[in-house]
Amino acid sequence: MGIKVHNSLTRRKEEFIPIEAGRVRMYVCGPTVYDLSHIGHARSAIAFDVIYRYLRYRGYSVTYARNYTDVDDKIIDRARKEGATTEEVSERYIKAYDEDMEALGVRLPTHRPRATETIPEMIEAIKGLIEKGYAYVVDGDVYYSVRRFREYGKLSGKNTEELEAGARVEVDERKEDPLDFALWKKGKPEEPWWPSPWGRGRPGWHIECSAMCIKYLGETIDIHGGGKDLIFPHHENEIAQSEALTGKPFARYWLHNGFVNIEKEKMSKSLGNILTIRDALMLHTPESIRLFVLSSHYRSPVEYSHTTLKEAEAKAERFYRTMLRIKNMFPRALEGSPPEDRLAERLKPFMAAMDDDFNTALTIGLMFEEVSRANRLLDSAPTGRPEEVEEELTTIAGLFKELSGILGVFERWPEAYFNDLKSHAPIPAEEITALIKEREEARRRRDYARADAIRDELREKGIVLEDTPEGTRWFVK
RNA sequence: GGCGGCGUACCCAAGUGGCUAAGGGGGCAGUCUGCAAAACUGCUAUUCAGCGGUUCGAAUCCGCUCGCCGCCUCCA
After folding, report:
1. Is the CB of A41 under 7 A from strand B?
2. How far: A23 CA to B71 C1' (Å)?
3. Most exposed of A71, A106, A123, A449 (fewest Cβ within 10 Å)?
4. Distance between CA atoms of residues A416 and A315, nearest Å
5. Is the CB of A473 under 7 A from strand B?
6. Which residues of chain A have pLDDT under 50?
7. What distance in Å separates the CA atoms of residue A39 and residue A5, rounded to the nearest whole number?
8. Which of A263, A367, A287 lies closest to A322, judged by CA?
């Protein structure tokens, strides 16, 4: 009973067996840093962040590399338009990406290589491919000869004849075959360049990932990930280059995440429906964005909309309200920890869900069954047996602690969560507490008309009041 | 045209051969409350796009039809 993963290479769910017992090497294609990252980048990063967290949780020593593509046509274009250098552009957007990831609670990978720091390795790889007859030089450019690699198309399920027939491949007279792709591009005077045996130039996109992957993780890795759109041609080309070069399988398991759609359509510059992570973070908490992403399977497409994000927020609210109840009624349940064997037993269904191709949606669903259970226990507390209730709540809290760490959600103290919302209240907190005080006096006088008027007034501003035996509390809706 | 995926309630969504089709949101009713809110309880899919087939048994496997989406060009 181990972890199963859906492998894009075989299109099947397979048992996950790393090359080296207890150790996992994973590589995920990171951003090309020419602009702010969008919510789709966030999904990919969060999905693989959870995979990374879970593998570590399951006791693997994980070496995880995620690159920055910091040399590319789009970066050059952007720099030219701004009158800036490509370094300035890439530096700015690497920083922005790092900030976005931190805001989203995405843990730092072990290695975060930049393409420009791996140029010597790329040149070596290209030299190797030329020597082995898989690449050829044409006037300062180097191309990979796709047809020499017999297995080309094994990941994307395409065959070279059909690709050729597709005719959407740009025709470049200098290529021996339209399917061939650039390993090294001859530099134009105003573009960044590095010296090479073929003259000044810069690397092609695909060779970057192969070189960085091999440099940091080795010739065969366990997991290679990225968005579904990278399957072809990027990952197909990575396989062709790497396997031709080393003669070894490049990656054992290929994992691909689905898209984030907006209004049923893929985000794209041409449609003008790009939602940046920054914009999303102005509208929603990082936690609700993570919950939104993790509430469906990482391979399915998800629809970003006001409704779906509101539902994610409602989940967070329900969870933290329950935690707040536990903290107020049985604070020791949150301070203590349950016996290990009991915890392990109760974690089983959750582990089974995560083992099944990282089914975070099911895991979250199961967590909410525990939330309901906790609330029932809390309701029963006044008439039930407090010791038993506390014991069970301690177990549930213990479960939540483990799962929160894996998913990267529900990790805060409930007060912190609600105070954060309160800090974004549309009216000052002092004003609200003053109104609450006035309302309490009205209630004491049994002037319910006045009390209700105050409550309604606050409600219109998004402030919800809750009368409890300990007094009136307020929440931001 | 080639390749791949999806279609589960009002919405989101898990489930891919067999206990009552998870969970969240929404709605309705009840308990609680001065009234609310929150929480809890019950109801909201006798059925999984449609039609056939395989099977003792299918949402799950196979075939066809309809609808939606992605890749085939840079793309998470």
Report:
1. yes
2. 33
3. A449
4. 16
5. no
6. none
7. 24
8. A367
- Separation in Å: B52 C1' and A311 CA: 39
Show the domain range for A400: 309-415
Length of chain A: 477
First to last CA, chain A: 43
* Predicted ipTM of the assembly: 0.95
Supply the pLDDT for residue A160. Answer: 84
User: CA A113 – C1' B3 distance (Å)?
Assistant: 33
| Same domain assignment for residues A333 and A384 | yes
* Environment class of A239 (CB within 10 Å of its CB; exposed 0-12, middle 13-18, buried 19+): buried
A35: its two tokens: 């602009």
Sheet with A260-262, strands from edge to edge, namely A265-266, A260-262, A302-304
Nearest nt (C1') from A442 Cα: B34
Distance measured from the CA of protein residue A382 to the C1' of nucleotide B30, in angstroms: 21
Question: A295-341 pLDDT, tens per residue?
Answer: 999 999 999 999 999 999 999 999 999 999 999 999 999 999 999 99
Domain harbouring A357, CATH code: 1.20.120.640
Same domain, A335 and A392: yes
Given strand A141-144, what is the order of strands in its sheet?
A135-138, A141-144, A181-186, A201-203
Q: What pLDDT does A300 receive?
A: 95
Q: Is the CB of A265 under 7 A from strand B?
A: yes
Measured CA to C1', the nucleotide nearest A268 is B75
Q: In this structure, are A364 and A410 located in the same domain?
A: yes
- Say if residue A345 is in the same domain as residue A462: no
A54: its two tokens: 């879970």
